[in-house]
Specification:
264 residues; mainly alpha
């Protein structure tokens, strides 16, 4: 019978059992992705309408240049939507397979942080859809509009749309990454504060590398990134690292019958 449950850290299983568990988790993830894809393809007209909503009314009729392009574009957009929908289940399968390899201390530090990943991803997708994408589309379509006749190709626009959505969800994972690093003791809050200017530079480079090459989109994307970095510092300071908590946790209990040691 296939193992499809998380195992404990102290439990020893053979390599064959590991591979069998991995195989069934991959199969379960593919089934979830397939079901999500069928639902998205069934409602592809609704998904395409939602994706095209940020476009001006005159540009909502996207063009195709090949007989099979409309079908292939619909399949691609449905697949992107299915990935977003199935991402929480796939993430669970991945972490359920990896977490038993972590020590109890590492698991205690990482697991609570992982709970926020789907929430931050959804928040990033909403921010990208309602804030970043409309501003990017408005700027790009109106840039030198008197000199160009703009006709949007369906495949290119929907690819741009999907990349903006995925990038928005990904960059909102900054607090998760920083909190995990602090909880694991890799970096400290003091290092995050002292290296703030380097972090700002890295955020500017990241915003420039995200989809939407115009300066307006870059500035819009930088604002939440800077806010998320500062929020991460505040949360890390409030939570602290396990080592800092154990060092500054107050009185150390001694076994009964023994006097506490004093430093001379």
């Amino acid at each position: 019978m296939a193992r499809i449950r998380p195992v404990s850290h102290d439990e020893e299983i053979s390599l064959v059992d590991h591979l069998d568990e991995l195989r069934w988790r991959i199969i379960a993830s593919l089934i979830a992705l397939g079901v999500a894809f069928l639902v998205c393809f069934w409602k592809s007209d609704l998904i395409l309408d939602i994706a095209a909503a940020p476009l001006p009314a005159a540009d909502q009729q996207l063009i195709v240049l090949a007989p099979a392009e409309a079908f292939l574009t619909t399949v691609t957009v449905s697949l992107y939507a299915a990935l977003i929908i199935a991402a929480p289940f796939i993430s669970y399968q991945l972490f359920a397979f990896v977490i038993p390899a972590l020590s109890p201390r590492e698991r205690k530090a990482v697991v609570p942080v992982l709970v926020t990943i789907p929430l931050l991803f959804v928040a990033g997708v909403f921010f990208a859809y309602f804030i970043v994408l409309p501003a990017a589309v408005d700027f790009l379509l109106n840039f030198n509009s008197a000199q160009f006749q703009t006709e949007l190709r369906a495949r290119d626009y929907y690819s741009f749309f999907a990349m903006v959505m995925i990038a928005g969800g990904a960059v909102f994972q900054i607090p998760v990454v920083i909190l995990a690093l602090v909880r694991l003791g890799i970096v400290s809050v003091e290092q995050l504060r002292k290296n703030r200017r380097y972090a700002y530079l890295a955020i500017a480079v990241l915003a420039a590398a995200l989809p939407g090459v115009d300066p307006v989109t870059m500035l819009i994307e930088m604002v939440p990134l800077l806010g998320l970095y500062e929020l991460s510092i505040l949360l890390a300071r409030a939570i602290g690292s396990p080592k800092a908590r154990s060092d500054g946790g107050g009185e150390v209990l001694e076994p009964e019958g023994l006097e506490p040691k004093t430093q001379e």
